[in-house]
Amino acid sequence: KEDSPGQGSRGGLFGPGQPDGGTGPGATVYGQKHALIIGVSDYRDLKPAGQETILGKFTDLKFAEQDAADLAAFLRSDPRSGQGWKIQTLTGRDATENAIKSAIGSVLSDGGPNDLVYLFFAGHARRSPADASEIFLLAWDSEYASDYSGIDYRWIQRKIANSPTKNILAFMDACRSGTVGFARGSQTPDHDLLGEIQGLKGFKAIFTSGSGSQLAYEDAALNNGVFTHFLLKGLKGEARDLDHDPFVDLKELEEYVVDRVREYTRNNPDMGVQRPRIVEHQGLISMEFPVSLRK
């Protein structure tokens, strides 16, 4: 499914507009805004959530596709998103390996240098059983018997780094190994792949739902993944305004999401502490990366 921006939208403007259509001091103008939103709850080869686990303790998830739908609705309809987004969603059976790879390749290669791209994934991920350094996001049709099936995380990282688009923010509500119960993650320690990401240029960042080997939880009380729930609240203006401008900036969003997710999971007896993190280019100044409007 794909949405195109309507006529008369403000396009990529995040910031105060002027009566003549120009931009004032501190305003930020992006070109076209693109969002690729992926969510997989019901996997082809897995049992429903809550049933006996199989294949490395994987079961279906409950709310990953709801996460995708809620983010798409925010970008499409909420004025605080800046609107004018060109949105592509891949969920359920449509979120095959080939479809995901094709869509990621297109959105990261076809945009202009001043465009803005949001890439969102909610679902399972795992380490390769054959090589702990290989991490894969799992598509609807990923082969769990294969050691290398899924979307290679390093491939995504390279696509982001090499994209001609300078403004890219990826949100990953998934951990990188087997999921136990309703959590998206693993209790088996793995090396910190995200710490190896280098070479990102411009305003490019990856915001992940957890650190290291932490689980990434979803919760029926929220009807979402915990990370996505607070991500949306932060984008809608609940993030603290640190610099008194009209935007929610990336640093403000990070502070809010990290604090709220950590607090929520710490106070839930059925969860372990989950701490989201941002991986970014060393030279990126997060406060200068507007991600939504406050009003």
Strand order of the largest sheet: 1-5-4-6-10-12-16
Please write the string of helix (H) and strand (E) elements: EEEEHEHEEEEHEEEEEHEHEE
Which percent range fits the helix content? 10-25%
State the end-to-end distance: 28 Å
Any idea what the radius of gyration is?
Answer: 18 Å
Structural overview:
Helix 1 (64-77) runs parallel beside helix 4. The chain contains five helices and 17 strands. By secondary structure, it is an alpha/beta fold. The model is unreliable at 4-13, 15-27 and 176-200 (pLDDT under 50).
Which tags fit this structure?
23% helix; single chain; 17 strands; 7-stranded mixed sheet; 295 residues
List the helices and strands and how they pair.
Layout (H helix, E strand, L loop, with lengths): L1 E2 L8 E3 L13 E3 L2 E7 L24 H14 L7 E7 L5 H13 L6 E7 L2 E4 L2 E7 L13 E2 H10 L4 E7 L9 E2 L18 E6 L7 E4 L4 E2 H13 L8 E3 H17 L10 E4 L9 E4 L2
Parallel strand pairs: 4-5, 4-6, 6-10, 10-12
Antiparallel strand pairs: 1-5, 2-3, 7-8, 8-9, 11-13, 12-16, 13-14, 15-17
Helix pairs in contact: 1-4, 2-3, 4-5
